[in-house]
What does this fold into?
Amino acid sequence: MLEKDFAIQSSLRRMLVRTSINYSRMDFGTVKGVVYVRGIFQISYVPPDTDEDQLAELTAKTLYSFEKKVRNIPGVSDVIFQLLNWRKERGKWLPIEAIEKEEGDGNKKEEGDAKKTESSG
It folds into this structure.
């Protein structure tokens, strides 16, 4: 590991310890200034009486903040996220379950339309 990468890793660990991010289910590494973040992104503290939509919004805001802080670490040239439960699309962080539901609903509609076409033709 390059000395620069080691310094980035140390800064990243220090930052994670100070945040409300549960990093026990995440793995991260640095190669030539590029930070790789893999795993499941979760917030370690969720205020009581938080519903699913509020939790998703809070997690997305935490992800934005986390990404910005990582990019501001000296020596970081890029950050690549390979998260199992969140994905960035068109500049927005979205929970993967919600994306799969939307895609699933679209597929069901298309299948239904195909069946209607077959039966009417």
Notes: The domain at 3-94 is CATH 3.30.70 (Alpha-Beta Plaits).
